[in-house]
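User: Show me a protein chain along with its predicted structure.
Assistant: Here is one chain, sequence first, then structure tokens.
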Amino acid sequence: MKKIAVFIACLAASLGLCVARTEPVWKAQPGPWGELEVRTVYLEVPETLLAAVAKPNATTRWVFEQTTETAVRELLVRQGVSAAMVTRLLDPASRTIQANVISLYPTVAEIGSLDVAVRSALYRELAKYPANEYQRDPVYVLGGDLDDWLAGSGLNEAQEKLFRQLVWKHGEAIAFSDIQALLTLAKDAAEVRSTFRAVTRVRSLLVELKLPLKGDRQAFLDYWTAGQVDATQASFLRAITQRQAIQSVDVTHFFPAVIRQRAYTFPEIEHGARGRLPDCHWTSLNFFNSTPKDEYLDMRQAATRLVQGYATVEPPYRYGDILCFLEGGEGLHTCVYLADDIVFTKNGDSILAPWVLMQVKDVEAVYRRSPDTRVQGFRLKR
């Protein structure tokens, strides 16, 4: 059979035919949540939002704030940038300096000459400065599968090749920041637009419950209602436990209404009317609320609510628990535990950050800064 499959693939390639790529699919570990099947999906920003967001130009700029030319030179050398490239970048005819802000303009060839280790170390330094938005908030290739990310991205062949060349490591995650370099390979305005749309792609999970239910009915109901007998989704949950036909149900149907409406969506522009868009803390703390509370946009009020309204818990976690990534006394990120190793999250307050389902290991890859980063569970007090 394997030989036949190889023959068919070779024949299709020789004829210029497109063979459908097998989509990743796996089963969650067994538990009271039922039998779950997981797939991946890539979300792209909607057209209305794409039109409203400012697009970068095709010139790459590295910004170093509140520093000196000597300090920048030492940093570049320390990170492994070649002496020739450092000299070229800091040539007065190339760089600009305004009020202790130094801007360097590397070419695509120069960026491509950096090996992954050097680029990764340098981009982690650039991410410390707010002006380097694409290093601070890069495109993440979660799951480590470049082929999966690039499939259907809309990038042309040359852009795909460059994308593969310019990825870097953000902790354990594969990241990409050189959007301007991709734009140099866009042939026309339509490709510029499709390039920007491509780099808004965010990986999410599609999680489906397989029916008929094989586990304990009451344990299943207790789990997905988080022990709330008056949960609005309880009637639906009870109904599906009676189904005998082989079928599947998306688990977002089990979410509270506010969260269910936001799953797999990007924020709307009007969500920023209060000065800030919803972030991970707003999402986590509003998970069980019938009406969202915007005071959780304030970090101090969000922290107060988490400490006062939730009890700390250790694994195994339950549906609705908040997982908080901590380093020292700083809360880096929060997300909501769903089942197995799957969480509901919004990664940052960017308008280009949708509400998604992710594996815990992928969240860790994004937010684990060091071996000292730890995860603490919190459970809503009843």
